């Protein structure tokens, strides 16, 4: 691997590790406070839309952290990735709606993570082959995080899933052509 490709991979690993560590810190705090608010307001049907919108806003913030860190890294290396954050968040919101398609957790995870890679590939100005590789790497990587997390429910398993995601997408990223404009 050349030095420039190794540098891209290292930057990608750093950006994603920072975002995932931030999520590991923020998600339990957010989930705990959301659960507490829900218990307090449980008997109030007039506030159900407030609870739903609060949960949606919390979800929106959580799914924005990783694409934001990725965008900070990508914008320095590749032209025209300005829509990376909205595309990633939009894909995550679409995936949220596909999550309960079947009772099979693997099918649910793939159907929930596939829209993220598909939406991100719209921001990638690369060959069709590179776009397909990205969608596959992103979907397999993100699914591995959730599958490992759901089956094991411990931090070690989630870290293995995160490592699979970062390495799959990172190696895919090192194959991108860098335009000179």
Describe the overall structure.
- Helices cover 80% and strands 0% of the residues.
- The longest helix is centred in the first third of the chain and has 39 residues, at 3-41.
- Helix 2 (48-77) packs across helix 3.
- The chain starts with a helix and ends in an 8-residue tail after the last helix.
- The chain contains six helices and no strands.
- By secondary structure, it is mostly helical.
- It is globular.
- It has one domain.
Shape: globular
Q: Tally the helices.
A: 6
Q: Which segments are poorly predicted (pLDDT under 50) over 5 or more consecutive residues?
A: none
Domain module tally: 1
**Helix content range:** over 70%
Overall pLDDT metric: 81
SSE arrangement, N to C: HHHHHH
Main beta sheet: none
Structural class: mainly alpha
Radius of gyration: 17 Å
Overall strand count: 0
**What fraction strand?**
under 5%
User: Could you give the distance between the termini?
Assistant: 24 Å
